[in-house]
Sequence to fold (229 residues):
Amino acid sequence: KAKGAVVELVIDSSQLMAAQAHTLMKDDKLTDLLEPSLVDSLDKELKNNLGAGVETFNQWKPMNVSLVLSIVHMMRTNEAKLSKYTGPALDAFIAADGKQRGKTITALETIEEQMNLLFNLRTISQQTGDLKIFLRNKTVMLQLGDELLQAWFNDDIESMNTIYKKNMEISGEMDHLVKERNLRWMKTMPALIKKESQFIAVGALHLPGEYGLVDQLKQSGYTVTPVKL
Fold:
């Protein structure tokens, strides 16, 4: 029934090649950034999960390595759950379906902005530190990822927030990924809502907590009512 749809990102296939460049290092190599013992650990992880060793992925930015290994683990461990669902991701479907229905589609970020957030905002040195934490705490962090996915399937937003906080206790604060983006989006959303009715689809971790969109909308005077879909 909404006249517009708002999503985090509308992917333009023509921009994918340029976006991929943000995931690579020009002058550094993983084997130079990590001490030998961690290079060995990473080599095993990459061979087990991606089928090739560290030399193949030597110019991947450390954040890219952590992200891909986490996603591959999640896909494999939760294959029975995830294999039931086919088609595009929810936000991509909403954007495409909304466009087909003649709705106004608004992206909160560009692909360039999202790539910068993930791969350029933190220095290579900082990303290397993050990768070291990931490799040393891999079992716990991957387990938290599985718990996060299960909480999502259970529609348990508050548990997702709790699990996210546990992850941040290990890996360190990443305010630029959730909190700062929420604050920035809240500068845009009220005007969009005022203009016309909107169906707003963002990642679940953007909803709960003190800086979550739900509480921020309430603080801005909106009535926020949960709806069972």
